[in-house]
Every structure is written in structure tokens, then in C-alpha cells.
Structure prediction request, 122 residues.
Amino acid sequence: MHFQTQLDRSLAMLADRGLPRRHIEPLPFRLLWKLGVNIRPPHFLGFAHIAIAFGTCFAGTWGVFMWCVVWSRMGKSVAAAVLMAAAVGACFGLMMAWFYTRERKELALPAWETIGQDERAG
Prediction:
């Protein structure tokens, strides 16, 4: 099945379960989709992929912001700033991975590969 079709069906499935758009289509994912990156919605990714996706985005954004606003004025080295941003990003990524993995189980979502198979069989 074409990725965009699977994506549309999975997002509709999540919306039908009452989840808000900002939750099922987080900003980093919407940006990646607009850039043509075929990444599954976070509810359909594995734990490690969720942690890496959210952790990297958060660490980069938060690290640059903190460097511009606080750390450069405090005299922190770039290496220290990168380490702090990476640590905070890792914590954030792990928390988001736990959250989406738990929610996927609570909602009893099907595997990504099975989305839309019932239409092809019929």
C-alpha cells in the first residue's frame, strides 16, 4: 500500500478514537511529512524510534534556545551545552516513547502493516 494512504488511514483511525490533532500529528512529524519523509505517526513507531525522534528534535530546539538565551552568557562551553542538551533530549525522548507506547496498548491499535488490509481483501 502507498505510504500516504496508510498515513491517512492511520490518522483517521486515531481521530476516530477521540485524540486531538496536535497529539496524533505532532509538529516535528507534520514538518517531516511536508518534507516528504515517510515516517509513521508516533503511535505506530517502536519505542526506540519514538525516543530518538522526539529526543533529537527536543534536544536540538531546546539546546539552541538555551545557548542563545542563557548558556552563552554564563560562559558555558559548547561541549557542555551539547552534553546538557543531549541529556535533556534523552530524558524527553524516553518520556514521550513511554507515553506513546502505553497509549498504543491502551487503544489496542493494530500493527502499521495491517492498516488497510481489509479493503484489499474484499
Summary: Residues 78-106 form the longest helix (29 residues).
